[in-house]
Predict the structure.
Amino acid sequence: MKVQLIGFGNVGKSLLELILDEYPKLEAMKLNLKFVSISDSKGTAVDEEGLDLSNVLKYKSVGWSGCDYYLKGYSALDAIKCIDSDLVVELTPSTNNGEPGLSHIKTAFTLKKHVVTANKGPLVVAFKQLKNMAIENNVDFLYEATVAAHVPIFCLLSSCFLADEILKVEGIFNATTNYIICEMEKGNSFQNALDNAIKAGWAETNYADDVDGVDAARKVVILANTIFDSDFKLKDVKVEGIRNVEPLIVEAKRQSKKVKLLCEIIKKDSEISLQVSPKMIPLDDPLSTVNYGDMAVKFYFKNSQEIFVSAKFKSPRQTAQAVLNDIIKVALKRKCTRQPA
Ligand SMILES: NC(=O)c1ccc[n+]([C@@H]2O[C@H](COP(=O)([O-])OP(=O)(O)OC[C@H]3O[C@@H](n4cnc5c(N)ncnc54)[C@H](OP(=O)(O)O)[C@@H]3O)[C@@H](O)[C@H]2O)c1
């Protein structure tokens, strides 16, 4: 399967390292993954016979200096349009307007290329449109890593509980705010906790979307749209961040509870409400055990009742593992549906 990688930062590089490390397992699956192009913000590395991944990683680490197959100024969009491939893996930064990922994904679909992405931006802006384009062009569109990185959410929903009904979802989807709240529960002020989160690499200097609950709300939009096949937008989520969470933490301590920035999707009769806000969590609720950079989801099903999944988050390698899993799913499906010669 010919693959194009768009976005070669933390997750993109981890993805290639993972593929090199797990090469024997992938070989045994006979997927024949061939990366024919890899694009970053300044150009594209191209080899239609398949790039040497360790060589590509080495050249990227020195800014492509001396690399004769890296074409400076050859954009990702042009690479998607001009280079023959089966799958586009989209790993550019998540933005408010969804670009550049939105154009990359739409272009891939019109050319009947499958898409795997970890990029929330395009799905928040145009979920229904992208889903419909994938269906119309008969291609796969997988995005496991967009919500809570490697916590298995969409793969779980697509293969288990098929005749069941989701009544409510509660999640901890933002590692930065969870880290800050845990630091505040140890007695730090909001500002000190935020500084610690930045120092530890959990928060970026541009932290507003995290602490104001917007990043978590984006994940709520993607998850709710997937579950209910709906077209919610960011404005449909009631959002409260954690800048003024201190009094709630004091009260929670008094009541022997924990505080979490809780993402909630609630279905009542035919109404669906979406919310992100700091909430007190009793200690017997498994969500209270999700600390620092870890993430989790709790589904309430009509028949299966409560299902809780959590994962420790340590590095982009885990996100890359979720992306690789989606790639493998696309490749295996192609292998199964390919007509014998
Ligand atoms: N980090 C995680 O563990 C994690 C978890 C879940 C989801 N995600 C999502 O996964 C995506 C990738 O995350 P990341 O941490 O790898 O981000 P990152 O380190 O910032 O890397 C982004 C990559 O995209 C490239 N890029 C930017 N604009 C581009 C354009 N117009 N055309 C082609 N490439 C372009 C950048 O190029 P340069 O190298 O030239 O700068 C860089 O290689 C994001 O959407 C993020 O929200 C990440």
The chain has 13 helices and 13 strands. The mean pLDDT is 96. The first helix runs from residue 10 to 21. Residues 6-12, 39-42, 76, 91-94, 100, 118-120, 145, 149, 316, 319 surround NAP (CB under 6 Å).
